[in-house]
Amino acid sequence: MNDITIVILAGGKSSRMGEDKGLMNLNGKPMIKHIIDTVKELDLDSIIISNDKKYECFGIPVFEDIYKDVGPLGGIHAGFENTQTSKILILSCDIPYINKNIINYILKNSKLNNIVITKHGKNIHPLIGIYDRNIVNQLLESIKNKKLKIIDLVKELKCCILDLTKKFDNTLFHNINSKNDLYPIVKIKLYGMISECMKQTEMKILLPNNEKLNLRKYFDKKWPILQNMTYAIAINQELREEINKKEKPNEISILPPFAGG
Fold first, then answer.
1. For the domain 4-173, what is the CATH code?
2. For the segment 102-131, what is each residue's pLDDT rounded down to a tens digit?
3. Closest by alpha carbon to 31, among 158, 138, 174?
4. 206 CB neighbour count, 10 Å cutoff
5. How far apart are alpha carbons 46 and 83 in whole angstroms?
6. Which CATH class is domain 183-260?
7. Which of 40, 46, 174, 192 has its CA 20 to 30 A from that of 57?
8. What is the predicted pLDDT for the residue at 212?
């Protein structure tokens, strides 16, 4: 498993975002830093592919595209050119909610395929996947012939599509292309018997980017153990249950009756 390097692609032009999305602030740190922090939990080397030297501040080697303005294919090619491992794990910089459990699952199920990409629901994610070095010639051929759609390349090659629909929550695969796509990552604090039942006192979760979200209904569905419990909800220490998409709360507390009434 160690014969693989993680390659984070940060070469997009971010035209819909209006700024470099990998460097855009998301819950207190650049979007790409969420991915960097996740991959640091794994025993694997990692690099960044970007033509912007600002990415050098993260302490990970940064390399430029050799073939510029050819989209993700150029980034994958640069990944191979700047690593020695037989495989690379590609992650785009705009999937900040990806976690180590997903990555470990992909690694575990990569087996003998030249390409292993992921799927959740109807959405295929070619930029969350593993690519074998023996595809480099076909990759170069596609670039030279200006066949730049990555999905066309993976269809031509021996490709395994790993369906993660039933394994992981769909929000973890959310791709951020515009500011309207942003989901807040919120700290959840648990108290008293709530904490005891859920066996933790604090966690971070993703909230759906809905116009309005009733947190009680959302929590009861997410954690069925809460359905038969009496509890209160505080958003930034204010007792209420509904949140809207314009809010980015720092903290949500789930309180037992003695603490929340």
1. 3.90.550.10
2. 999 999 988 778 899 999 999 999 999 999
3. 174
4. 15
5. 9
6. alpha beta
7. 174
8. 84
